[in-house]
Each structure stands twice: as C-alpha cells, then as structure tokens.
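Researcher: Sequence of Probable succinyl-diaminopimelate desuccinylase follows. Predict its structure.
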Amino acid sequence: MDKRKALKILQDLLKIKSVNNHEAQVADYIKLLFDDYPAAQVTVVNYAPGRSNLVITIHGDQSGKTLGLAGHLDVVSPGDVSAWRHPPFAGEMDADNVYGRGASDMKGGLAALIYVLLDLLAEKRVFTGSIRLFATIGEETGNYGAAQLTRQGFADELDALIVGEPSQLQVEYTHRGVIDYELAAEGKAAHSANPEAGNNAIDQLFRFYTAITQLMASKTKIDPVLGSLLHNVTQIVGGEQINSIPARARLYGNIRTTPLYPNQPLMAEVTDLVAQLNQQPENNLTLTYHYPESPLPGNAQAPFVQLFRRVASHTLGQQVAVVGDSGATDASEFIRAAQKFPVVIFGPGNNSSHQVDEYVAIKDYLAAITIYQQVILQFLR
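Model: Prediction complete. Tokens:
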C-alpha cells in the first residue's frame, strides 16, 4: 500500500467544499484519478447543475459476480467555522488523524474505496466478475443520487454491496429507515379575545399530535437488533402574534422505522389518520412526506456478512462485531434494484461525524483499505 498516495486522496477530497451541493467538483476530481486507466469505465450521471453522480465499473478477467461499492460525495455544513481548531476544508493531518468536514462521514470511506480500485488497476490484480463504484450526490439530504442511479438500472446487476459509511470498523448488516413528514394546518385568524370567530390552526396540530402518539404507542414489536419504532415531533411553526388566533401552522415529524414496521404500510396508516381527522369540520390538514428511506433488512449469517467479519477480524487482530445501525444510508435506495443482494455497511469513522473538528484516525483509514481489498478479492475469486 502506498500510504502517502492513500492519504493524499483523502486530503484532496476534504479540501473540496461539497456542502449539500457542488458534488460535481468532487466527481471531477475522482474522474481525473481514473483517466490513466482505460480499463475503468467512468460514467457521469448528472442530477442538476453542479451536481453529478459518478459510476466507475471495472471488469475482471472473466465474467462472474458483480460487487458494488458505494460512497456519497456531499457533506453537511461545518457550522461556525471559527469554532474549529482545524479548518473544515483544509484536510489537515497530524500523526494520528486527518481532520475536516466529511473526514468521518464519509469521505474517509469513499477515499478508501477509491484507493482500492486504483490499486487494483495499477497492480493489475486478477479477479473474476466486476466491481462497480457508486459515488452519489445528496445522501445527507435525501439520498437523491442513489435513488437516481437505482431508477436508471445501475444497481440491477449487483450480487452484493459495500457501503463505506463510518461504522467504527464494525460490520453493519441492517439499519433503520426514515420517514420525514410535514403536516400543514389551515385555520382562520381572529382576535384572541374572540376565539370563536376563528379556527386555531395550532389546535388542529395538537389533535393530530395526540392521535399519532396513540398510533405509534400501539406499535409494540421490537426488532432484536434495531430496537423499537421511534417517532418524534421535531419542529412546530405557527402563529402571527400573541393576541391573534393563528390561521396557519406546520408540524414536522421524524419516524425511524425497522423491518418489523416497513415504511409503506406505516405511511398508509398515518395518511389514513389524517384523513380521519379531516372528517371533523374544524380540521383542515395536509400531509406531505419528504424523501422516505426504507429500513435495510439483513441476515447476520449471510455468507457475505460473515466473509466481511472474518476478514476484518483477521486484519484488526480482534473479533469484530456484527451489528445494526440506527441511521439510514444510500442502501435504502439501492435495495430497490431488480434483484435482492446482501449489504454490508463498513467504513472508517467515529462519533465526530457532523461535529466540530471532525476527523478520521489514520490507522482506521488504512485498515479499511486493507479490509476492502481483501473482501473484494475473496468475493470475486
């Protein structure tokens, strides 16, 4: 392994400000890395101006299985830059860590996957089948890129998928889904001294809140790995001033689903709940869903999961846990492809994701490269 080259790729990625957009700059940089290798089929899939996905396919010496690798190009905002000791877009490095927005989530994992592919090409390593890297836009705000690539059929040939999200070098095989929703209430303004002349939009939201709390409390099944269904109202906006009955109000909620409570049936129940409330003349509620992401089902004993566990345990010199993840990933979209396949979420990273002075440990980054390479070569023997 050329450690200097591997670290430079990571630092270069961190220097590109791809905060929730501008991913095309990252895609352009990655594309340049593969320009010297004609064997790499590079496809740019545009989403919007300044926003491009990248699909890189490498074929082995004969036909066989297809292994997918996935990482996203976008990062979240750094927030107050003055609070950072290490500038968020400088890619600074010390003896132990590389710092920057996205170092943990997930340019560390993406850079490791890129390096492995470049090394396979440079060293002309022999494998059967194909490797396909998906570098996606918009994961942090709705998995837009993964959804687009899946709709266009890029994931239809996959036999397995590695998602390089930060897993603290644990093998994750299942994760929660997400349902974000917005509920708008339309009422009628009036003076607060004469509330009967109006229709309080906030009161409508309270009726919904009571009803959906009861609905969610009835979902008592607990996933043995991911736990119970989670529901939180996270934002309420409404009213014009303190002495006026509000004519409009909005409520935002977040549901974290599990395979025991899949998204579509649950969304149907919430939609029906709003319809029932709207049968009352005082309610005028409109429900909107924002980019729901399905939970990732999985089997801890699947051969691909166990292959990953064995390779990671051997490389790290300790038993690696096989676990679930409370968050969601691009895998929620890729599993909508034509055929079913096992997914492993595995990558360097830690709890500094989305925080000030986000970092990735150099030793974890380099270990991930070794593990990715061994899993790829063993899976595609």
